[in-house]
């Protein structure tokens, strides 16, 4: 890099002349060659071969020694993941990807000039985990280096490359297409994220990427400013696609892209993708509404409110056969509030009955002219499965009861719409069904869809579910139902996705009960209370019930849910408890979580309708029916069940044996007797020996002979003590 100095302002200075000479030496050959190419092209059109022969410019470049055209072409491949081996020109990965050069040279030979020189060079680098290709190609030609032409030539032939080349990334000697890149995050419900979706080269990534790309290409097919879709990656939750949409520069904005996608649920559905339109919410738009009164035309903006972030919404729109008045533009007006209340009162109950789990409310967002167009949304909790657009349309149509009236609302039937779904393009019901199998032990092989264990269990589950739904709900169950299995406390959690092409309503409670009432036909021990249909589940109370059977011996086979002993003991206990509560309509089921040692302890769960009983009552009932367990050869430890410590039975009464007389007491008595006997002897001894008088003299007090007791003591002084 050269810094500007003041002498470069003066063309007479050495600094100016030196820099000018350097630039001329570098640029003159290039522009001479370009000029010759241009003149050659123009004269060739005139068939002026004589003039062609004498073209020459000052310098060393003529028609006879034109230099090859040098093209530096770079672009990004979307469906390849960059790795370190691609910088090693001897690696198999490099050699395999190097075939991109053959495609490039073929395009240039057939579409531009056949004289592509050998020994072209290519390198690869990392571009956000995608692969950036840098190619250096020389062409021996008299044609002019027309960069826009070459750019269009390559862009128009990317579909012949065998790679997903991002068109907007193509550059020819630095020239590219001016575009706007609009980032969008799209969530697909019902899709399960797997680690392979992080690998751009995996089959899972490529398959899902192709489905998303195809759908979006169809959605924007009629937009002449649309260029392409780039899949940047996938992440969990269910599966979220990070997408870049490319449009010609200055032709659109993100709000328009999001609105178009929100209204294209059916297009994604045709590719087995369930678009979460709520994930695209949060955009405020302004629409002009022309209200004509006499000769005055007013433009009144209406704003769609930003929806709350903790709500998942299904859009709903319909027309009312009544006259629009300007006051309906104002949410605070009496007219707006009155019509809103009528709609909510008439419709909210219908939606909450069909899909109650997580339902919040029916919300009226705004009204527009034509007659009166009501824009609403059916709102659900974030963790709920909202109604699909097709179901929202079908529920409202069903409520019309084959007429155009719903209470005092005159709804125009053909106007009912949710996103881009109407009565004319209803989509299949998409059922996400899950449940736990109690008597199957989860193993890692159930995550491998090519394993025999997976195929056997998958076929059994799909056959049972499809047969049940065909015979009891609707015969038009579509093929290719999908199933995956996961681990839940060593049991097998089944997640199935079944689609039904029907005009019947997706009544989730009814479908849930249909499956629960037919678990006996499945050949599996399905835990009824675990059944969910599109998020709708039973509301129950689970009570922990510890059973101990002291006469049984624990073995390791009781840790394997698939073993005959586990299944046999499980069935035996379950049958006894089912019999005990057979007349209790609030009892749903009993299932065993595990067996453990001591002798055999069963950790069981009793399931009852929510709020109908208490654990203490359940345990008391079981303890009172100890005989029912005994009849099934199960010795029930009722103390263990109730939590009462075992008591020791009392034996026959016996007289208390006398305690032995302590030895130290005898010694004291003997010593006392000896002391009594010794006292008289001591008295006689003292008298005979004069011992008493000697002791008396020893303690006798006498005045000394040399002391005059008449004289005052202490120096002859006397003291008067008062």
From TrEMBL:
Membrane-traversing stretches: 664-687
Gene Ontology cellular component annotations, sorted alphabetically: interphotoreceptor matrix; photoreceptor inner segment; photoreceptor outer segment
PROSITE patterns: SEA (PS50024)
Keyword Protein transport: no
Record carries keyword Membrane: yes
Example of a GO biological process term: visual perception
Localisation per UniProt entry: Cell projection, Cilium, Photoreceptor outer segment; Photoreceptor inner segment; Secreted, Extracellular space, Extracellular matrix, Interphotoreceptor matrix
Residue intervals of the SEA domain: 178-285, 308-423, 539-648
Source organism superkingdom: Eukaryota
UniProt keyword terms in alphabetical order: Cell projection, Extracellular matrix, Glycoprotein, Heparin-binding, Membrane, Repeat, Secreted, Signal, Transmembrane, Transmembrane helix
MF (Gene Ontology): heparin binding
PANTHER family: INTERPHOTORECEPTOR MATRIX PROTEOGLYCAN (PTHR12199), MUCIN-2-LIKE ISOFORM X1 (PTHR12199:SF5)
The protein, known as: SEA domain-containing protein
Species in which this protein is naturally found: Scyliorhinus torazame (Cloudy catshark)
